[in-house]
Inverse folding.
């Protein structure tokens, strides 16, 4: 199942959710297999404005509730620039991170212009060295098949064409969830999510 907050769904229906967080590797893995906890969220301060998320508790709680549902594999947060999408994702990810055995991985996709590079970007961030002769997608699915992990994709609109690849990854890895965060498309049906806040 795919859920969307704040805009049209960016991922195919077989994807569920992912969340936005900052990752930090827990050291080298000589065996090449995922450790019990691959990644952990670091402080989001360096990625967020120096203001608190006042009045966003209900939105954070809604995101967390959706991420905890077994039938939701990917959750898309979308909206116009500057409404706090990434910070909401970071806050929600920090709540649920411990519920994933391997933690969470934050990917800032702003510099990535080619959707075909998304899988390679994930491989690099996870320091995957196994199956070097296989295509990137198959390397990922084999490596993450038995891994419990939350993938947070910031600026997902940069690689929207890679949504089918994310769907394939989630279908092959039942304990992996995705939280894409991106700009909403102009016009369209009724939307929920990260709206602007007054003073």
């Amino acid at each position: 199942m795919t859920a969307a907050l704040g805009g049209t769904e960016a991922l195919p229906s077989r994807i569920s959710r992912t969340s936005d967080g900052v990752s930090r590797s827990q050291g080298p893995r000589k065996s090449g297999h995922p450790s019990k906890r691959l990644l952990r969220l670091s402080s989001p301060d360096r990625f967020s404005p120096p203001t608190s998320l006042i009045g966003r508790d209900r939105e954070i709680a809604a995101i967390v509730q959706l991420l905890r549902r077994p039938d939701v594999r990917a959750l898309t947060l979308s909206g116009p620039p500057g409404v706090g999408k990434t910070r909401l994702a970071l806050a929600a990810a920090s709540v649920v991170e411990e519920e994933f055995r391997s933690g969470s991985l934050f990917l800032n996709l702003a510099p990535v212009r080619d959707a075909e590079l998304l899988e390679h970007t994930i491989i690099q961030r996870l320091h995957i060295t196994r199956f070097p002769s296989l295509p990137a997608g198959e390397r990922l699915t084999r490596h993450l098949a038995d891994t419990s992990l939350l993938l947070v994709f910031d600026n997902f609109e940069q690689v929207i064409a890679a949504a089918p690849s994310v769907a394939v990854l989630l279908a092959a890895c039942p304990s992996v969830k995705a939280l894409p965060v991106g700009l909403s498309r102009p016009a369209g049906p009724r939307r929920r999510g990260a709206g602007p806040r007054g003073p």
User: Anything to note?
Assistant: Confidence is low (pLDDT under 50) at residues 7-50, 187-193, 195-199. The CA atoms of residues 39 and 103 lie 5 Å apart. Helices lie at 57-68, 85-96, 118-125, 136-144, 163-172.
